C-alpha cells in the first residue's frame, strides 16, 4: 500500500498508509490528522489546504480553476499550496509529503 507523510503544525512528521483512490483529506481523517475539510470535499471552502513538498508538487495534476479560486481564500497560501480534497492517491504519489499550514480560514462560515 502507498504511504504518505503529513508534517503537522508542530513540525512532527507522521507517515501513514495512503490507500489508492482516497484523497489526502480522506487519508488525513482516517488517521486523525488535524485537517478540517468543512465542506467535506465539495470544493466550497479552503479548510483542507495543505502545502505540498516542492519535490512532489510538479508530480501532481494541475489544479482546476475551481480549486485555484478556493485556494485564493486559504490562510498561509504558499507557492505549492493545494486542497487536500483534490489530491487523489495513486501509485505515482507513493511517498507524498504535505505540510499543514499554520492555520485555516473558513470563508464559508
Task: Give a quick set of tags describing it.
109 residues; alpha+beta; 3 helices; 18% strand; globular; 2Fe-2S; 2Fe-2S_ferredoxin-like_sf; Adrenodoxin_Fe-S_BS; Ferredoxin family 2Fe-2S iron-sulfur cluster binding protein; metal-binding
Could you characterize what this model shows?
The chain is an alpha+beta fold. Helix content is 17%, strand content 18%. The protein has 3 helices and 5 strands, in the order E-E-H-E-H-H-E-E. The protein has helices spanning 24-30, 54-57, 65-71, and strands at residues 3-7, 13-17, 49-52, 81-83, 97-99. It has a 5-stranded mixed β-sheet. The radius of gyration is 12 Å and the shape is globular. The mean pLDDT is 93.
- Largest sheet, strands/sense/barrel: 5 strands, mixed
User: Which structural class fits the helix and strand makeup?
Assistant: alpha+beta
Taken from the alpha-carbon principal axes, the silhouette is globular
Oligomer: single chain
Question: How is this fold's topology laid out?
Answer:
Layout: E1 3-7, E2 13-17, H1 24-30, E3 49-52, H2 54-57, H3 65-71, E4 81-83, E5 97-99
Parallel strand pairs: 1-5
Antiparallel strand pairs: 1-2, 3-4, 3-5
Amino acid at each position: 500500500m502507498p504511504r504518505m507523510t503529513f508534517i503537522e503544525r508542530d513540525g512532527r512528521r507522521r507517515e501513514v498508509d495512503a490507500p489508492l483512490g482516497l484523497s489526502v483529506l480522506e487519508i488525513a481523517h482516517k488517521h486523525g490528522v488535524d485537517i478540517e475539510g468543512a465542506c467535506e470535499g465539495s470544493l466550497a471552502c479552503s479548510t483542507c489546504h495543505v502545502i505540498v513538498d516542492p519535490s512532489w508538487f510538479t508530480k501532481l495534476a494541475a489544479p482546476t480553476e475551481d480549486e485555484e479560486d478556493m485556494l485564493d481564500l486559504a490562510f498561509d497560501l504558499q507557492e505549492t499550496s493545494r486542497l487536500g480534497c483534490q489530491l487523489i492517491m495513486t501509485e505515482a504519489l507513493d511517498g507524498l509529503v504535505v505540510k499543514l499550514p499554520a492555520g485555516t480560514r473558513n470563508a464559508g462560515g
